[in-house]
Amino acid sequence: xxxxxxxxxxxxxxxxxxxPSNDKKNSISVSFTESIHPDQLDGRLLLMLSNNDExxxxxxxNDGLNSQLIFGMNVDDMAAGENITFDDAVFGYPFxxxxxxxxxxxxxxxxxxxxxxxxxxxxxxxKLPMDNGEGQQWNKSPGNLYSKPFKxxxxxxxxxxxxxxxxxxxxPIEEPADTEWIKHINVKSExxxxxxxxxxxxGAHVLLPKGFNEHPEAKYPLxxxxxxxxxxxxxxxxxxxxxxxxxxxxxRFNLEGYNxxxxxxxxxxxxxxxxxxxxxxxxxxxxxPTPYYxxxxxxxxxxxxxxGDAITYELIPEIERQxxxxxEGWSRFLYGGSTxxxxxLAVQVKYPEEYNGCFAACPDPIDFRAYCLTxxxxxxxxxxxxxxxxxxxxxxxxxxxxxxxxxxxxxxxxELVLGDKSRSGQQWDIWEATYSPQGNDGYPxxxxxxxxxxxxxxxxxxxxxxxxLRYILERDWDKLGDNLKGKIHIYCGDMDNYYLNNAVYxxxxxxxxxxxPYYGGEVTYGDRDEHCWNGDxxxxxxxxxxxxxxxxxxxxxKRINESAPKGADLTSWRYK
Length: 576
Hints:
The chain has 3 domains: about 25-170, no CATH class; about 180-365 and about 470-565, Rossmann fold, CATH 3.40.50; about 370-465, no CATH class. It is built from 13 helices and 23 strands. Residues about 1-20 have low confidence and may be disordered. Strands 2, 3, 5, 6, 7, 8, 9 and 11 form an 8-stranded antiparallel beta sheet that branches. An 8-stranded mixed beta sheet has the order 12-13-15-14-18-19-22-23. Strands 4-1-10 form a 3-stranded mixed beta sheet, with no helix packed on it. It is an alpha/beta fold.
């Protein structure tokens, strides 16, 4: 039976019932002073609330259990003195709206993550945050504006008429100085400069071998230590730990005095580096931050440009020229963990003749059937398990006992607050910026809807053909196999915090089943070891993570002895 209601009554009912409730309407305005920046600015404007007084709110945002509150929006041409209002409609994390914030006292702080405009060689114009020497960290990037925290009260009726003024600017970072052992190099990349429409430089920290100046006749093999943005060459010091250093507790490793342990390990590496029987190598750590992340993932990509070619064909040859590297594929080796583990394996696969072995520890997903806990080819949704009657979220982080700290949805929603269009500078977004095709707007195409988690399987197929390392190896083994024999070494803890071991299992299944030719490398696991186990069964992660630069040397020397071409220089760099 239908009940007909006059239109005028419908309008009245809607006017009364469809209006937003005024019981809890929030309004916080943010501006910046002309004294710190007279120009109009583009960027991501962030508002943070924290009920923890230990640090500034900008240093308390994460996807773990202890995260504080953050809300974000884009601003274009924001001018000094202009008030931008955060209300209940602005998306936030872990509460999606200011209206959900519980009553209480909070420190409030605002920050503007400044964007620059890039005119790409693809014909697109995009706005992105340029790295300013900090390794793409929004909360401490030089040039970003911010306010000093102050306390506000959130009541049952919300918070209104609060004004936050950004009158601080993050200062520039001093560049590291050269030392007797460590040199720093910056090389303009013609390939990247053409892509980005401005000068782009690649950097590296170079650790010189003992006797470098005393042996001008020597040429050296090269070890490339891939990983996140390094401010300077880490884990190397020529003096013992400071005896007056106050011990600091490491919550990650549950170790008291971990800062002292780190300095001792760095000094022990220096002593090992100088021992008479230690091979003389060059070791480099590369600086290749992009506007999307603290590093480029060391491969060519549609939205970031030809970083793989720039590193392999521009940066590394220039380092070898300046520091007497051998400059041949048989003398170059790759290693690293996590991001660096994926990079080591990916670079070896994509440039099989330019490098002679990779040691990939706890690599980011190397088979997208196990993109952490998601099969991007078969699953319909990344955030929830398929179920007719339950709504169960997919975890994102666990400890070695399997206890969950965050979910995939939560981590992605935090990224969406920090920046849309893959601009958060965080993990899921950099995978998109690296693996996805470029969209019509010049930004990476989403693998899945960032709000809902629904997967775009057409984009998944693009990922598969271009960056799924297990699939690429299986597809092209007849072309790659001969050049990769003996070069692939993978290590992972079987309780990796991010479930990265699942993809390693699938890679191992393929590698161990190949017979034409057999891959001839190794895949090993650490029992109950978390991220980032790197192949040492004798030491815990807290120690082995500081020994990358020495632990693979015996394997590298074995590889050199087995594979160096006839007539290769195996002696000039073996001096005492």
